[in-house]
Known about the structure:
Layout: E1 7-12, H1 41-49, E2 58-63, H2 67-73, E3 82-85, H3 90-105, E4 110-115, E5 119-120, H4 123-137, E6 143-148, E7 158-169, E8 172-182, H5 186-195, E9 198-208, H6 209-219, H7 221-231, H8 239-249, H9 255-260, E10 266-271, E11 275-276, H10 281-287, E12 296-298, E13 305-309, E14 315-317, E15 322-326, E16 331-335, E17 340-344, H11 351-360
Parallel strand pairs: 1-2, 1-4, 2-3, 6-10, 12-14, 13-15, 14-16
Antiparallel strand pairs: 4-9, 5-11, 6-9, 7-8, 7-9, 8-10, 16-17
Helix pairs in contact: 3-6, 6-7, 7-8
Amino acid sequence: MNTPSHTFALILAGGGGTRLWPKSREKTPKQFLKLGGEKTLLRTTAERVRKLVDWDHMYIITNVSQLADVKKNLPEISDNHILCEPMKRETAMAMAVGALVIQARDPEAVVMNFASDHVVQNPGEFMHVMETAAQTASDGNELVTVGISPTFPHTGLGYIKIGKELCQTNKLPVFTVENFTEKPNTTTATAFLTTGKYFWNANNYVWSCRAIERAFEKYAPNTALLLIELKKHIGKPEWEKALHDAYERTESISIDYAISEKADNLLLIPGDFGWNDVGDWKVVYDLAQKDQQGNVILREEDGGEIVEYQSHDNLVSANGRLVALVDVENMIVIDTKEILLVMPKSKSQDVKKIVEKLKEEKKKEYL
């Protein structure tokens, strides 16, 4: 553990996550799924982050409906290190509140921000990159992001374009940032990759509490005023009411739109550690171990049996009953107690269209 003593981690664990519908829903979001592994994505994330900071320097921000699941997954985290958002307001407010609480404990704090539902295949390099980012951010002047080295023209992620190289730290280059592009089409994303100047945006931000506080004052002054008022109530009995009032008055906006895309002191360190956001069922298939027929069978606590005949390259999840496949190839079959999803693997991004349709039809029981 080579991070500075003032380094903290904030794990964002309050999302709903519908891209892995119907397993991931409002009541069972992605971070609490195992997806064929022995541990949930949240637990795996926390254990990975634990190699950077101890449990006492780790904070979680979630919401009331998911609090019990967070505590079940992470019994090592003390209750006063689990922050509960009263309503959804996107990542800007979540990261701001996390930094505010951590700063009250340590005015010199540097915060590493992590999503709770991402996969890292090279933990050693992950530690190297994140330790370097924390070291870079420790002077209190810059905001740092870890850009993921792109491996294909992904159209579901944001892209960050680098400028000049400022220096090398721990044998890693540190770049200025020129601009952001949100979810380009395939042609544009392909063109980005040929330049070697674009990185995927994974929201792995690292900054000192002082630096992000100044950034909100400069680029999101209305939110900054709410944070100044909120700071007076940290650790006091009226904290929850003050937090609720602040959330009711703030806008719902991502940290990218609120701060990162506007900041003139944002630096990027490339990350090449096998990152993936597990953004759809095809990704789950690609990451998982296959059987001799190329099938991925998700076996979790809910049980169920799967039998196949001349079926290849499928992802199948059962839930308490038998799922049989006959002469089926390249399909996704996800069976839950209430919902059965069947679709071609190549169309896995289109599950969001079903979710949108259910929202339009106000069928909340399936969301």
